[in-house]
Amino acid sequence: MAPREIASVVANAPVEDAALFLARDAYPRLDVGHYLGMLDRWAAEFDDSRELGESLSDPFTSARALGAYLFSRLGFHGNQQAYYDARNSYLNDVLDSRRGIPLTLAIVILAISRRVGLTADGILFPGHFLVRLGGPSGCFIDPFLGARILSTVDLEILIKRTMGPDAEVGREHLAVADTRAMVIRMLNNLRAIFEKSGNYARGLVVCDRLVDLEAGVHAYRDRGLCALAMGAREAARADLSAYLELAPDAEDRAKVEKALTRAKGPATLN
Q: Which CATH number fits domain 179-264: 1.10.40.50, 3.10.180.10, 1.20.58.220, 1.25.40.10?
């Protein structure tokens, strides 16, 4: 997919469309229409259910109805046994296996909610993506735990678990995520998984997408380090140099300069 096409999809399509289009990087023959149709059918079934008539007027009832349908009836659940499996971040795999991480399960909830007229927003909570139902006066739910409704105390526990015992929930932690923000978070999850596993080829593709989406100067650094690990020294030099130029005061400047020196040095035989 060309950079312009990616930017257009992310800017103009619902998040589930964008997630499935990006999954084509891992599954080139992916039939996006098949998975969108799957979501359409589930939404229609949910719309026809008796619970929905009550749920539209109250976000708490909406949360319970969604939880009962998606997690109890369809069997979606958080993949605690293999949380860092890359397949948890590809929406087609999540729809097939009905297992995922907070972000991808949230995308399923958002897709179903929009199709049936429920107001739902993705929330960029640190370390654990959430969904808000019913707008600013609605309720927060945890997509990883069966759409469980979260109290103020629950949110405080989550923020301390992620950011330390002195952290407190602020407005910035409850920011609504647009499609671009969700896709970038998804790609960053994949980048971290592939970096940790040493799968630099797949990591490089993910970093390409982050650069395409102008996800920040760190995308150049990460792509350069992937390229260097694969022996693509010229590409590594270009990206690492770009990072140092764009972020002259970066905290990791010394580390990146060492990597750039390796990229400029003579090739070695193994």
A: 1.25.40.10
